[in-house]
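During the reporting period the student researcher (J.K.) took over the structure-prediction task from the postdoctoral fellow and processed the backlog of single-chain submissions. One of the processed entries is reproduced below for the supervisory committee.
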Amino acid sequence: MSQRVGVARTSRVLVTALYLAVHAMGCTEVDGGAVELSWKLRAATGSEETFLSCDIGLTDTGRVTHIRLDWDVDGAGGFRQWRCEDDHGVTEFELPEGQALLRISPVCGSGAAALDTYTAPAPEQRNVIAGNTVSLGAVELLLEVSSCQDRPCICQ
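J.K. obtained the following structure tokens:
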């Protein structure tokens, strides 16, 4: 009976030591905060489609290739963008600590979408703390996809 207790105790000590060694090596220094969001594309008005794919699928319009997140944290700016089809994105822990102004916008194959071709949520102001993730939740981008002869449409 005492031999079983000794083996069990030795096993626990080895497992605990291995656990601590693996997690000590896997730790990384975190200097900033991260942002996560998800998105949907929606027709602004006059379209038979409610939600749109990144290809838009309409004559005379291109495709939304990326969704871009811009930030300004106490004067320090940066951005990340993700493939539109991903439907969500998370930055690394790269935003400096402080008050952040966060903006979302669509990107076309030819570059940034013209401001008059979409409506994005108002910029969000959030406090960034090192090691924490700011969640913007799900955002909708309203894209102009109808009456493209009368006014510019997204990615036209």
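The committee noted the following: Residues 13-25 have pLDDT under 50 and may be disordered.
J.K. will present the remaining backlog at the next meeting.
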